[in-house]
Design a protein that fits this description.
With 369 residues, the protein is an alpha+beta fold. It is built from eight helices and twelve strands.
């Protein structure tokens, strides 16, 4: 009897030795939650990168957010939503603001912007890669024909605005976009006849306005067309790494552990961005109140995931696919740190199933620009 008891205790005590992360049989069921993507191959400047291309690229899938909230039910990777416009170079507008939205990393966009200026024989007076800033030298543009695009655009803009004299320059800023591996390019036009120019190294380009809006718009059009024609070129600038910090949006958790989407933009742009995302995702807006920062939307069944979708079963989802709408509140509220917090709630303001709520916010982020 003593032998049997001793043997049983030994076997029970050794179970963990067989299944822990140091035993004979290692449990790897949850290791994927901590997996990391290896960095991409970087081609040094001066070498041809066209021959080194990924023949079978894997779509970018963000790392699972706070997997400890899903201990008993590991979360799926965030959905990859189809978006016909996400691979296009676009001009975004908000009020009197306009900028280029480009589906490429800033380290790829930076050399293309510099090449645009070089091919138009525009000398640089300021180059600050960490801030993504470029200023042209002051140019003397007369009312005469020019062979390059930059001088022709400025000449036509001055002629239309009936502006004579003064020296001209363009100022540019390249920075990360709202999504991973996207960029924004902002352009400003200045003429020194309007007054003393601002300090080169200290100016916040996003807080300044062009001396002629039509010239800025035309320059954005030409620069956007140039970059769009070279969207397949993947030359990476080493000096532009870390430009302007990270992307302007990321998934987070609030104090209660509920998923939220943080937008690192001002309130006006955050509200417009979420409204644009809802429209691009073809989701019906039942009502909206900008003062309260509230959208009420109806999400179709084919976009629903999470616990509520799982409970319907695969056969019920197949038969009733697309006929059921789920009403969701989307709240856009300012945070103390200056960011804008986007959350998804039920119609009565209660928290949603966490996985469903996260997927709704991920969808809005994927359709943003």
């Amino acid at each position: 009897m003593r032998v049997r008891i001793l043997l049983l205790v030994t076997v029970l005590g050794g179970c963990s030795w067989f299944t822990d992360d140091k035993g004979l049989i290692v449990d790897r069921n949850k290791e994927y939650l901590e997996s990391q993507e290896a960095p991409a191959l970087v081609i040094p400047e001066g070498l041809d990168s066209d021959r080194i291309q990924d023949l079978a690229p894997i779509p970018v899938i963000p790392a699972p957010l706070n997997p400890e909230y899903f201990a008993d039910d590991p979360p799926r990777p965030d959905a990859i939503h189809g978006n016909d416009s996400r691979d296009e170079v676009r001009i975004q507008r908000l009020g009197n603001r306009a900028w280029l939205a480009i589906p490429e990393d800033p380290t790829i966009v930076w050399p293309k912007v510099k090449q645009f200026l070089a091919e138009n024989a525009v000398p640089l007076a300021l180059e600050m890669p960490p801030e993504g800033r470029l200023d042209s030298a002051w140019l003397e543009i007369e009312n005469q024909p020019y062979r390059d695009i930059v001088r022709s655009v400025i000449r036509d803009g001055k002629d239309k605005a009936k502006l004579e004299g003064g020296k001209d320059r363009i100022r540019l800023r390249v920075e990360p976009g709202l999504r991973e591996r996207t960029s924004e390019v902002h352009v400003r036009y200045e003429n020194d006849a309007f007054g003393p120019p601002s300090a080169d190294a200290l100016v916040d380009l996003l807080q300044t306005v062009s001396h002629d809006a039509d010239t800025e718009q035309s320059m954005l059009n030409e620069l956007g067309a140039y970059i769009a024609a070279r969207v397949s070129e993947q030359t990476v600038s080493m000096v532009a790494r870390g430009m302007g910090g990270g992307v302007k949006s990321y998934m987070d958790r609030d104090a209660q552990g509920e998923p939220v989407l943080r937008l690192l933009v001002d309130a006006d742009r955050a509200w417009a961005t979420i409204g644009q995302s809802i429209a691009r995702a073809e989701i019906d807006i039942e009502s909206d109140d900008e003062t309260a920062g509230l959208y009420v939307i109806n999400i179709p069944a084919d976009l629903q995931v999470g616990e509520s979708a799982e409970k319907r079963g695969w056969f019920r989802r197949l038969i009733f696919r697309g006929d059921k709408l789920t009403t969701v509140q989307i709240r856009v509220q300012p945070a103390e740190d200056g960011s804008q917090v986007v959350s998804a709630r039920s119609p009565d303001g209660e928290p949603l199933d966490r996985e469903f709520g996260q997927e709704v916010l991920v969808l809005l982020r994927e359709f943003s620009s």
